[in-house]
Design goal:
alpha+beta, 4-stranded antiparallel beta sheet, disordered N terminus, single chain
């Protein structure tokens, strides 16, 4: 679902709320949310320099009962909110006003303020230099296959895209996608790149 830009005269966000925060805004409004607290803990551990990799992410999904996309959106949104909230050492009353405008739950504001105080110096000095300890893609192999005949008549003459990823840790991941899934992949990669660009612009 497309998120509309919200006009927002803000000392933290500027003229509009970043897309990464818009995608998790409804979650931020939830009161007494254990998922918010757990995801914030994940984000602050990352901000403090701990390597948060695949195992930690899988544990997060299992604990929160959210799918990968929901977890990703909430983590990126919280990280964006945390980094923007420590920018230029905003006073507490300024942050509280901005968070209220955003609709952040009151009980979560207290926890978030504590983390802002703890992480402020760490994030300003070197938080952005820490990276998730995930392997990178060294090589991508792919082709387009078209099934001429198959036991499933509905799949006959429909193209599919087998892909093989060679990762920096030496592992190889193989999978197959439909054309629709390939377009979804293109869209999500483009969206993630835009989120990264927005985060760099506001940091």
């Amino acid at each position: 679902m497309n998120q509309q830009k919200q006009e927002f005269d803000s000392v933290i966000f500027g003229s509009h709320i970043p897309d990464s925060i818009l995608r998790c805004q409804e979650k931020l409004k939830e009161k007494n949310s254990d998922n918010l607290k757990y995801c914030l803990k994940f984000v602050t551990q990352y901000a403090k320099g701990r390597n948060m990799g695949v195992n930690e992410f899988e544990t997060l999904k299992e604990h929160t009962k959210m799918d990968a996309t929901e977890c990703q959106n909430l983590i990126v949104g919280l990280l964006t909110l945390l980094r923007l909230s420590i920018k230029r050492k905003f006073k507490h009353d300024v942050l509280t006003k901005e968070w209220n405008e955003l609709g952040v739950a009151d009980d979560f504001q207290t926890i978030l303020m504590d983390e802002v105080n703890i992480c402020r110096s760490l994030l300003e000095e070197g938080g952005s230099s820490h990276k998730l300890s995930l392997p990178t893609i060294d090589r991508v192999l792919w082709r387009v296959d078209v099934a001429i005949s198959t036991s499933a008549v509905s799949r006959a003459l429909k193209p599919s895209i087998p892909m093989q990823l060679h990762l920096s840790d030496g592992s190889v991941r193989s999978f197959e996608m439909s054309i629709d899934q390939f377009h979804d992949l293109r869209f999500n990669v483009a969206r993630m790149l835009k989120d990264m660009s927005d985060l760099e612009t506001h940091s």
